[in-house]
Amino acid sequence: MQTPLPSTELTQVLSLPRAGRTGIFGMTGAGKTLLADTLRSGWLTRFPAGKCLIIDSKPHYRAQWLLSGLAATPLYRKWEQNPHDYLPGSYLIPLGGNYRRSLTMAYRKSRLVIVQGPREHWHELLQCMQAFYELYGARTGPRLVDIDEGADFFEVERYGGIILQALRAGRQLGLGVILGSQRPKFIPKSTLTESDRVYLMKLKSHDDFITLVKDGGWPKDVPAPARFHEFRYWDFYHESYPSGGLFKLGGL
User: Fold this and answer.
1) Which helix (H) or strand (E) holds 22?
2) Quick one: which of 6, 28, 185, 229 could link to 252 by a disulfide (CB 3.0–4.6 Å)?
3) Given phi > 0 = left and psi -120 to 50 = alpha, else beta, which region is 220?
4) 172/174 Cα distance (integer angstroms)
5) What's this model's pTM, rounded to 2 decimal places?
């Protein structure tokens, strides 16, 4: 079994571009969320003027603040208090309101904003993402949208809607995308082909790997990791080392 590569290369592959299209694929427990957290935190550090919106459909992240200025803690009293899911300084966007106004208010206070809700509210999450897409442009600084479970939204928007729009045209507006999923098999080819870099973790089904090879361009001779908390990396613009390398996030 291949040994994960040194930390020097790990630092390189964890540096997201200003407005890239990033896919993270792995089964439950593989470490996908922690990897996304690491990529997002690094991006916010590299781009001090950047704004990030997390689209949380499970939901599982815990925001610190409401737009009213009150603590969001009461909303999460029944939740498991996993420290990895708490995002200090983040603001929660209320559902069903004027998303442009809510986003404007939130970004005056923080660079990290969350919109979240269960299945019956997924349309609202997409509407908030649409407002984020339209509200700002390249001149207002870099932006990143982190979609925690991308496959969920293709039950709502069969052909991708704002997600596919952001992947195809967001670069010109300074918008980067992180799209995570446990089951790439359920993500349309039109979406998978837009990724310029992929982080592949342990998969539940070989069908998911085949989908990434056929529809996403993943090289068929680069297997998915066999162990949890490891990942392989592929940059479609630089298909040489460290593309194809096996890595492990420290502390996972």
Assistant:
1) strand 21-25
2) 229
3) alpha
4) 6
5) 0.93
231: region left, alpha or beta (phi > 0 left; psi from -120 to 50 alpha):
beta
Distances (CA, A) of 83 to 73, 80, 86, 104, 209: 13, 9, 6, 28, 31
The mean pLDDT value for 171-181 works out to 95
Hunting for tokens 């919109």 — which residue is that?
Answer: 115
Identify the pLDDT of residue 5: 54
Six token digits for residue 145: 């949208």
Q: Is residue 55 within a helix (H) or strand (E), and if so which, with residue range? A: strand 51-56
pLDDT at residue 205 is higher than 90: yes
State the average pLDDT over residues 18-35.
95
Where does residue 200 fall: left (phi above 0), alpha (psi -120 to 50 degrees), or beta otherwise? beta
Domain assignments of the chain as residue spans, ordered by start: 7-74+83-246
C-alpha to C-alpha distance for 200 and 14, rounded to whole angstroms: 13
Q: What is the CATH number of domain 7-74+83-246?
A: 3.40.50.300
The pLDDT assigned to 3 comes to 62
Residue with tokens 């969920």: 152
Residues 6 or more apart in contact with residue 102 via CB below 8 angstroms: 67, 93, 94, 128
Q: Which of 85, 79, 150, 156 is nearest to 114 (CA)?
A: 85
Cα–Cα distance, 198 to 206 (Å, whole number)? 17
Which 3 state secondary structure label does DSSP give 140? helix
φ/ψ (deg, to 5) at 23: -110, 135
